[in-house]
Amino acid sequence: RDQLRYSVVFPLLSCHCVDALHELCPEERVRVSREAHDLCYWTLDGLAKRTRDVVTAMCGEEFKMNQKLLPFNAASRIATARGGGKKGGKNSSGASYNPEVDKPGMESLAKHREDSRLYELHHSLGELGAAVNHVPAVALFGDTMSPREFLYEHLEKCFASAVTGMANFRRDSLSISKPSELLHSVRTYMSVVQRVENYVDVDMTRLFNKILLQQTEERTPIGGETIAGFYADWYLGVVETQSHNFIVSENRKCFVTARFSEKGGAGITPIEEYTTVGELRALVELIGPLGVRRLSFLIMNKVNKIVNELYLQVKRCNYDTLRQIRTNYDKAEFMLDVTKRLQGTEDTIQCFTLIGVYLALHSFLQSATNDVLGLRVPFLLSSIADFAGQHAKEESFDLSVNELASAAGIPTAVDSSLVALLDRSRQDRLEGKIAGPPGGGQTPAWGAGDRSSVEDEHLVSCLLLVNLAVLIPELARRDRCLYSGKLEGNSNNSHCIFRVVNTLFPAIFYIHDKNDTGERLCEFLALSSSSLLKLGSEPNMVPKARESIYILLDLIVANSGPWLTQDLLEPCFPYVLLRNAYREVYRKSDHHKSGH
After folding, report:
1. Of 66, 254, 431, 570, whose CB is crowded by the most CB atoms within 10 A?
2. 503-525 burial, b if ≥16 CB within 10 A, otherwise e?
3. Three-class SS of residue 248?
4. Is 300 helix (H, G, I), strand (E, B) or coil?
5. Is 2 exposed, middle or buried (0-12, 13-18, 19+ CB in 10 A)?
6. What span, in angstroms and rounded, lies between the C-alpha atoms of 391 and 385?
7. Torsion of Cα atoms, 161 then 167 then 403 then 463, to 10°
8. What is the pTM of this model?
9. Looking at residue 340, what is its pLDDT?
10. Which helix (H) or strand (E) holds 483?
11. What is the pLDDT of residue 441?
């Protein structure tokens, strides 16, 4: 071990191979130069690999010590301190546990530093660093090889593979490390790799910037996977497959696993451990603005696909029925009869609810981005916020300004990425087709008889909004629509429909360029409030969650931005009903809590 600093002598020996040549034997020059190049390359590469292995071992030791400082590892120690555990027992993993030995910082109490594994690694790194740093370059037969570049290349590959490996992503089981834990592990790894600069003249900051920037993209330049891709697949996969197992909590600003989850919680991802404010901030720190932008685009792409399905359903199944509802919504008996003729109401409600959940994830992600940028670049963020605020007063909704604000995590009245995707689908429908799979193919959807016109597209958009308005009262008849005052959300996430009204439909009507978003939302308010006021008038149909749906109407108006206000709601829906609804819902929540 003490002779490692002299290992650089082997690549330097290859420089003397030129002395073995003679002008009377020119045919030996090619073979000698090739052998010398191979000797120099393999010895420098071996020296760099040995240094990399030492750095990797140091990272492993530091990682173990830092893991002991994580909050979740303090539970067993707290239990022991309170008398809940026994000295010399076993921890949750079944391994033997001794609080005196496993206590963080106990490694500093060693009698001899030579007994420490970390000391041996530091000593080896010092010796190898001296060898790598001995000469800046090795000149050989007109070529130059740098020991530092060999080391830099190996550390770069090692750091890139370590970052993706610590994510522990499994697509089949949808398991991945929490963003905060991965961020803690990456910072621990970086702190160790940074120490290489103390022994070798290598710019580690350049290495970190390069690798971490690659991790914010979909793929690395060589086609490798990235943590941005991992987390995008995980979040979208969980929302798509397990949205019925969690509740979007507007109070906690995260997703909360429902108590009625299937299998008693077995096999259900604890979604609240990945969507809290702290976890999403850690996610933004990891994937950066580029990764957040790509994840937001994928979320909006999911929304766009669901909207295409809803357009098809309105056009092919409920077109005439919704036109009649739109013009006769003030006729109670007619509405009662014609509403029953709507087809696919269950699927439509589920589609709108799923869109709301996707938009909720997008909103939470934007909020986390704004928080992180406020800590990193506060002056730039304040300038963007001021610029976007001044632009919002003009009500012109320039998409370039909205895109700038959205990238900074500032909510906008019209989402630019959603508008771009919806407009592309609209053009495809005008041509009789919709966008195909990501590979570039296209799948016929409307056919020759379903080819849309510009006016027909606008009418179908209006009818889609009408469809949502008349389906809102249907939610009151569902058991899982009960509103939780503690979480500020419904059990089946139907409260997320307010995001559909305030985010999706402004983008839809923006692409029609008729400047009638306010009129269409006022029409929606009149239809939905009229339908809600008729709840309970049907025989043998007692609404179970009427007050909860009243609150949904209030959420739509309260979060509508520049289009709907309480002044517009009051003539359509008495405020006393909303007040009584809030009182009844919170009374039931308190009674349910006291009952448990």
Report:
1. 254
2. bbbbbbbbbbeeeebbebbebbb
3. strand
4. helix
5. exposed
6. 10
7. 130
8. 0.86
9. 83
10. strand 483-484
11. 38
- CA 80 vs CA 69, 77, 83, 104: distances in Å: 16, 5, 5, 15
Residue 193 · residue 57 · CB < 8 Å: no
Q: Residues with Cβ < 8 Å from 218, sequence gap 6 or more? A: 226, 228, 229, 294
Residues 138 and 336: their CA atoms lie apart, in Å, by 88
Q: Which helix or strand (DSSP H or E) is residue 418 part of?
A: helix 416-430
What type of residue is 210?
A: K
Q: Please tell me the number of Cα atoms within 13 Å of 392 on its side-chain side.
A: 20
Question: What would the two tokens of residue 556 be?
Answer: 């739509």
135 C-beta neighbours (distance < 10 Å), count: 16
Nearest to 503 by CA among 386, 308, 360, 294: 360
**Residue 85 near residue 78, CB atoms below 8 Å:** no
Q: What is the number of alpha carbons within 13 Å of residue 320 lying toward its C-beta?
A: 2
How confident is the model over 179-187, as a mean pLDDT?
92
Tokens read off for 13: 């020996």
Which of 14-18, 149-153, 309-313 is the least confident region? 14-18
pLDDT mean over 503-516: 90
Confidence of residue 538 (pLDDT cuts 50, 70, 90): low
Which one-letter DSSP state was computed for residue 254? E
Q: How far apart are CA 67 and CA 63, in angstroms?
A: 6
3-state SS track over 29-40: HHHHHHHHHHHH
**What are the start-end ranges of the H helices in 276-412?**
277-316, 319-327, 332-339, 345-376, 378-394, 399-407
Across 331-355, average pLDDT: 86
Spatial distance between the Cα atoms of 465 and 519, rounded to a whole number of angstroms: 12
Q: Which residue has the higher pLDDT, 456 or 591?
A: 456
Torsion over CA: 49, 55, 59, 65 (sign)? positive
Mark 17-31 as b/e (b = at least 16 C-beta within 10 Å). beeeeeeeeeeeeee
Could you count the other beta carbons within 10 Å of the beta carbon of residue 345?
15
pLDDT, one tens digit per residue, over 383-436 is 999 988 887 765 567 788 889 999 999 998 899 999 999 999 988 888 776 543
Cα torsion 505, 423, 240, 215: sign:
negative
As given in the structure block, the two tokens for residue 55 are 């750095």
Ramachandran category for residue 500: left, alpha or beta (phi over 0 → left; psi -120 to 50 → alpha): alpha
Reduced to 3 states (helix: H, G, I; strand: E, B; else coil), residue 157 is helix
Q: Say if residues 374 and 515 touch (Cβ distance below 8 Å).
A: no
Q: What is the pLDDT of residue 269?
A: 73
Q: Distance from CA of residue 558 to its chain's centroid?
A: 26
With contact defined as beta carbons under 8 Å apart, do 524 and 469 qualify? yes
CA 307 to chain centre: 21
Cα three-residue angle 361-367-373, rounded to 5 degrees? 135
Place of tokens 């060898």: 131
- Contacts of residue 337, defined as CB under 8 A and 6 or more positions apart, other chains included, come to none
- pLDDT-based confidence at 222, cuts 50/70/90? confident
